[in-house]
Amino acid sequence: MRAEDSQLDAWAKLGNNITWDSLLPYYKRSEYFQVPTAAQVSMGASYDPEYHGFDGPLTVGWPNEMVGGNFSGLLNSTFASLDLPWNGEPNAGHMRGYNIFPKTLDQAQDVREDSARAYYLPISHRPNLDLYTNAFAQKMTWETSSHASKPFANGVVFTSPNGTETTLLATREIILSAGSLRSPLLLELSGIGNKAYVSLLVHHVDPR
User: Fold this and answer.
1) 103 alpha-carbon distance from chain centroid
2) pLDDT tens, 161-198?
3) Is 130 within 8 Å of 145 (Cβ atoms)?
4) Alpha carbon 99 to its chain's center
5) C-alpha–C-alpha distance, residues 116 and 121, integer Å
6) How far, in Å, CA of 139 to CA of 143, rounded?
7) Which residue from 65, 95, 141, 194 has the least number of CB within 10 angstroms?
8) Are strands 31-33 and 58-60 parallel, antiparallel or unpaired?
C-alpha cells in the first residue's frame, strides 16, 4: 500500500520537492502488476491501470486463494452505512474507504514477494556484486579535497559480524536505503543533522 498523497506532499513543504505525483512514476517503474482474474474480481479485487506499472521487478497482485464472497459485500455495506465508502483503488493516493487491496506476491509461484526475490536473486550471479550479510553500517565517509567543489559522500564504514571494521569506497554513488529509522540515524552519524544528537548517538548506538 502506498502512502496517502497528503503525507508525501508534506515533504515538499520541507523544501525537498518530493511529492506524491513526483514519486508515482517510480512506484509504477518498480511494479509488475498482475491483473486480477475474473474470480478475484468477483471477490472484490479492483484497480485503475493508471496507477500501476506492468514491467517492473516487484510482483503485486491478489492471492489465488481469495476468500470473502458475500462477507466482503456485507462488510462493505456496513462500512458504507458508517460513511466509509468503497475505495476501488487505494493506491491512487487516497486510502480512505473499504477495499480489497493487492499484496506483494507472485501469483504464478504462489509465494510472497520481497526485495530479495525482486531485486537480488535475478542478478545474484553478477561478478561485480558483493553481498555482506549481518554487517552493521556505521557511517558514510566524505570527499573533502580541494578539487571537490563541495563535500560529497564517497564511502561507507561498516562492522562485520566478527567485529572487523571495513571501509568501502564508491567510484560512482552511494544509495542510502536503511529504512525510516536507520536512514536518518546513519545521516546523523555521518555528520548530517543535529550536532548534539550525533554526540548522543555515538554513545548509545547498538552495534549489533
Assistant:
1) 14
2) 999 999 999 988 999 988 888 898 899 899 887 765 55
3) no
4) 21
5) 6
6) 14
7) 65
8) parallel
Can you read off the three cell numbers belonging to residue 36?
486480477
| Residue corresponding to grid cell 554526540 | 199
What is the pTM (predicted TM-score) of this model? 0.74
Q: Which H/E stretch holds residue 165?
A: strand 165-169
Say if residues 37 and 107 touch (Cβ distance below 8 Å): no
* Separation in Å, CA 171 to CA 138, 157, 168: 19, 15, 10
Q: Are 60 and 83 in contact (CB under 8 A)?
A: no
Nearest to 112 by CA among 180, 58, 67, 68: 58
Neighbours of 75 (CB within 10 A): 14
Rounded Cα distance between 106 and 112, Å, is 6
The pairs formed by 19-24 with CB atoms below 8 angstroms and a separation of 24 or more are 20/93, 24/51
**Three cell numbers, residue 23:** 514519486
- Gyration radius of the chain's alpha carbons: 22
Q: Please say whether the dihedral angle defined by the alpha carbons of residues 124, 125, 130 and 134, taken in this order, is positive or negative.
A: positive
Cell of 173: 554513488
The answer to whether 31 and 53 are in contact (CB under 8 A) is yes
pLDDT, tens digit, 9 for 90 and up, residues 109-131: 889 999 899 999 999 999 999 99
